[in-house]
Amino acid sequence: MNDICVMILAAGEGTRMKSTKPKVLHEICGKSMLYHSINTALEISQNVVVILGFESERILEHLNLEFPSQMGKEIKTALQDRKNLPGTAGAVMAGMSEVSKDTLIITCADMPLITASELKSLANEPCDVCVGAFELENPFGYGRVVIKNNKVEKIVEEKDASENEKAIKLCNSGAYAFKTTLLKELLPQINNQNASKEYYLTDAIALAIKSGAKVSSQSLNSTNFMGVNDKIALATAQDKMLALIRQKWMRAGVIMHLPNTIYIDAQASFEGECEIESAVVIKGASIIKNSVIKSGSVIESSLIENSDVGPNAHLRPKSNIKDTHIGNFVELKNATLNGVKAGHLSYLGDCEIDSGTNIGCGTITCNYDGVKKHRTIIGKNVFVGSDTAFVAPINIADNTLIAAGSVVTKDSSEGELVITRAKQQNIAGYFEKKFGKK
Ligand code: UD1
Ligand code: CA
Predict the structure, then answer these.
(1) Does the chain have fewer CB atoms within 10 Å around its N or its C terminus?
(2) Is 344 assigned a catalytic role?
(3) What is the mean pLDDT of the segment spanning 337-357?
(4) DSSP secondary structure string for all residues of 31-54
(5) CA 71–ligand 1 middle distance (angstroms)
(6) How far apart are CA 288 and CA 254, in angstroms?
(7) Is the CA virtual torsion 316, 319, 325, 330 positive or negative?
(8) 3-class SS of residue 205
(9) What H or E segment, with its residue span, contains residue 232?
(10) Helices (H), ranges, 168-216
C-alpha cells in the first residue's frame, strides 16, 4: 500500500454535462464524483494527487470543505496549464512533482464507481505499465486498446482511429498503473499531433513499448469504470451506487420494502433493526437506529433512535429524535424530541421537547419573527391541544396543559392550564334568522 500514489485527473471542463457546475462536482448519492474518487484513492494510498484546471478555485473550496484534515497532507493538488498543455498528459505532467511513490495509479474523477480493490489490482500486475480495459458492444467515444500478437500495441482515441480500429471493442478505461520513473521519461516525448491538438496520456503506451518496457492490460468491470460524461450517465451511475448502498444495509439487517424506490445517500447509516418502507428518501449523514421509517418520508441529516416516522413525514437537518412517534405530515427542523408523540400535521422547528409530551394535530412552532429564528422549549408531560401556535422564544414548563386553538406567547409555570382563545358564545335562533327555516 505504501509505495503507490494515486493521481486523479479532474481538470477537464465536462462540456457534455451542459452545466455551469464543473463535471466532477456533480453529485452521486449526496457526494460529488470527485469526493467518491478521492475517498476510494485514500483506501489505497496516502499520496493522492488531484489535478485541477477548469474552475480550480471552486473545486479547491469544495475539497477544503470535504477533506479539511487531509488537504495538503494525504491529498495534494496541482494546477494544469490547460492553455499550453491541454489534454490528459498535460494534466499528469502538472502533478508529477507531487508523486513520491514508485508506482503511480492514474484515474479520472468522472469514474465514481471504481472500487479500491479494482484500482489496486492494476498496480499488482507484474509489468511497467498496466492499462485497465473492458469490452463494450458499443465502444463509441472510448479510446481503443490495439492488441497485436496478444500484446498491447497502443491506444488510439476515437477521433484518431481508422475504420478498422473503430471496430475494436476493447476500450481504455482511463485507469492505469505506471512505474513512476518510466512515466517521467515518457511524458516529455508526448506531442499534440492528433485530431484534438491535445497531449494524450494514452500516447504513453506506444512510447513505453518503444522504450522496451513491459506493458499489459487488465480486464475490468465495465459498469464500475463507466466514465460519466453526461447527465444520463450520471443517473445511471447513481442507480448503480444506490443498489450497492441498499444491498450493504440489507445485509447489515435493515428491512426494505420495494427497495428500488428507496433513496439513501452514501453518508447515511443504520444501526440495530430498522425497517424502511417504500419511497423513503434518506439524505446526508443521517443515523437511524432501531426505527421504522414509513412510506414517503424524507429524512435529511438527522438522528433517529427507537422511533417511528411517517408516512409522509419530513425530518429536515438536525432533527434528533429518540423514543418518539412522528406521524403523517409532520415537519421537523433543528428539533430535539425525546419520548414525544406528534401524530399529525405539525411544524416543529428550532425546538426541544421532553418526554411524555403529546403534540396535538396542527401544532406550529412560530420560530421566525421575520428577522431571526427563536427556540421553543417544551418540558415533560405537556399536553398540547390541537391547533396550538407557540410564538418563540418560549418556554413551557413540565406538566402544562395547553388548550386547543391557543396562540401561546408567554412562558408557563409547572402545572398550569394555558388558554388563549376567545370565549365561545352560543346565540340561540341565529341560524333561522340568517337562512330561514329548514
Ligand atoms: C479519456 C481517454 C480515453 C478513455 C476515456 C475513458 C485520453 C486522451 N483519452 O477520454 O482513451 O477511453 O478517457 O473514460 O486520455 N482531464 C484533465 N485535463 C484535460 C483533459 C481531461 O484533467 O486537459 C481529465 C478530465 O477532468 C476527466 C479525465 O481527464 O476526469 C478524462 O477526460 P475526458 O475529457 O473525459 O476524456 P475522454 O474523452 O473521456
Ligand atoms: Ca471521460
Answers:
(1) C
(2) yes
(3) 98
(4) EEHHHHHHHHHHHH-S-EEEEEBT
(5) 24
(6) 10
(7) negative
(8) helix
(9) helix 231-251
(10) 180-186, 203-210
Q: Whose CA is nearest to atom 23 of ligand 1?
A: 87
Fold of 4-219: Spore Coat Polysaccharide Biosynthesis Protein SpsA; Chain A (3.90.550)
Enumerate residues 6+ apart whose C-beta is below 8 A from 118. Answer: 132, 220, 221, 224, 225
Encode pLDDT of 352-410 as tens digits. Answer: 999 999 999 999 999 999 999 999 999 999 999 999 999 999 999 999 999 999 999 99
> What percentage of the chain has pLDDT greater than the value 90?
97
Q: Mutation test of ligand 1: which of 7, 40, 88, 194 has the most ligand atoms closer than 8 Å to its C-beta?
A: 88
Question: What is the residue extent of each domain of the chain?
Answer: 4-219, 246-418
Cβ neighbours for 247, distance < 8 A, ≥ 6 positions apart: none
Does the annotation flag 386 for ligand binding? yes
Q: For domain 246-418, is the CATH number 3.40.50.12780?
A: no
Neighbours of ion ligand 2 (CB under 5 A): 110, 227
Gyration radius of the chain over CA positions:
30
Ligand 2 centroid to 261 CA: how many Å? 29
Query: Is 433 annotated in some ligand binding site?
Result: no
Nearest residue (by CA) to ligand 1, atom 13, is 174
Around ligand 1, the residues with Cβ closer than 6 Å are 9-12, 51, 53, 80, 82, 86-88, 90-91, 108-110, 142-143, 155, 157, 171-174, 200-202, 227, 229
> Hey, CA dihedral for 301, 307, 313, 318, is it positive or negative?
negative
Q: Which of 52, 62, 47, 65 is nearest to 105 (CA)?
A: 47
SS (H, E, C) 348-401: EEEEEECCCCEECCCCEEECECCCCECCEEECCCCEECCCCEEECCEEECCCCE
pLDDT tens digits, one per residue of 97-134: 999 999 999 999 999 999 999 999 999 999 999 999 99
Which atom of ligand 1 is nearest the CA belonging to 199?
8
Alpha-carbon gap, residue 201 to 178, rounded angstroms: 11
CA of 52 to the centre of ligand 1 (A): 13
Q: Is 200 annotated as a binding residue?
A: no
